[in-house]
Design a protein that fits this description.
Yope Regulator, Chain: A, alpha+beta, Thrombin, subunit H, six-stranded antiparallel barrel, single chain, 2 domains, 364 residues
């Protein structure tokens, strides 16, 4: 099967998974009615945000945590007609062509093609497929697919500072976990990394496995609005007071993202100590570009906290605050203006200048 054919089959079933711990990928298996991802993608969360081409972003609970194989199963959205993906019955051979599919770096969808370097590489008693297809941050949890469009593995990790040296958990382990979870379907269960037994989450006492006593770092039900320290906490408090769904917006420990009026609005606390408030309003039209530039420059003179910029084809509205000068009221005003301006200007740019909304641009 050609690579593009494989991609067309998988695209509706590959899911973006994110929480305050970061973002990754997952994929839906109809036979089990579960979304598969890596355990390290969901971290110790009790629920995560998922998004896909067939449904709007939503929060869903994690049903299974596998500490041995680094797997997690997520409850899928209801009444969605996902394509049927099949798990391969046998391992690929060295030199076979494979495709790694996922959402690296938070991008909405990517795929990379490569070959199997070694079909069976053992780490800590677990079998992985070594591949030269690029696996980047955010690819974790996505499917590794063979030429027959079968799942042969779960993209799991890459060797740091290496060139295209990635590893996918063998489908043999995936199938084992799926079958062993069947009796517990719909309940939150955990596989112990020591004794390999599966137990219900509620049966763990003080994080200790009820079978062998091994202590695991188990997920816990968070407070209604999970507490973050300092600036994170203040930003989330402001957003909650504005009626925004913070849990659904989290894209990492210091990042939030909202889709409103076909615009992508984001808030990000950078490592450099800058808080970035911005929105992608859309892309440049094919005509009237000079008139648009004149309008944006005039508006920059009128705006106090925000300014327009054009990066490649994207029209960006943004503001930056240094953490050193963090003031609660200033941040509140900036966030309120961010949402108001984003909606107002997105409408103007579409209706008067023919700009393409960010949402429609991504769908193309």
């Amino acid at each position: 099967m050609q690579t593009q054919e494989i991609i067309d089959i998988y695209k509706p079933a590959v899911i973006q998974v994110s929480s305050q711990a970061g973002s990754g990928s997952g994929f839906y298996l109809k036979e089990y009615n579960l979304i598969v991802t890596n355990k390290h993608v969901v971290d110790e969360n009790i629920e995560v945000r998922i998004a896909g081409t067939l449904f709007e972003q939503t929060l869903k609970p994690i049903l299974f945590y596998d500490y041995k194989y680094d797997l997690a199963f997520i409850k899928p959205p209801e009444k969605i007609e996902f394509p049927l993906l099949r798990i391969a019955e046998k391992l690929p051979s060295d030199g076979d062509r494979v495709v790694a599919i996922g959402h690296p770096y938070g991008l909405t969808y990517t795929s990379t093609e490569g070959i199997v370097s070694k079909k069976k590489r053992i780490f800590n008693g677990v079998s992985y497929i070594q591949i030269d297809a690029a696996i980047n941050p955010g690819n974790s949890g996505g499917p590794l697919v063979n030429e027959l469009a079968e799942v042969v593995g779960v993209n799991t990790f890459v060797i740091a500072e290496s060139t295209n040296l990635g590893f996918a958990l063998s489908a043999i382990h995936l199938k084992e976990s799926l079958e062993e979870y069947r009796p517990y379907y719909g309940q939150q269960a955990v596989r112990c990394s020591s004794c390999m037994n599966i137990s219900l989450l509620k049966d763990f006492n003080n994080n200790s496995c009820p079978n062998c006593g091994t202590e695991l770092k188990l997920p816990k039900i968070k407070e209604k609005h999970e507490a973050h320290f300092g600036i994170n906490n203040m930003i989330e408090k402001i957003l909650i007071e504005m009626g925004k769904n913070v849990k659904l917006a989290r894209r990492g420990k210091r990042d939030w993202e909202f889709k409103e009026n076909k615009t992508l609005i984001f808030i990000s606390i950078g490592e450099s100590g800058l808080i970035i408030f911005g929105s992608y309003l859309g892309s440049l039209p094919k005509s009237n570009i000079l008139d648009l530039y004149i309008y944006l420059l005039k508006e920059n003179d009128n705006l106090q906290r925000f300014s327009f910029a054009v990066h490649r084809q994207n029209i960006l509205l943004s503001s930056v605050i240094n953490i050193k000068f963090f003031r609660n009221e200033t941040v509140r005003q900036t966030i309120e203006e961010l949402f108001r301006y984003s909606n107002e200007y997105a409408t103007i740019l579409r209706e008067h200048y023919g700009c393409i909304p960010k949402e429609e641009e991504e769908e193309e």
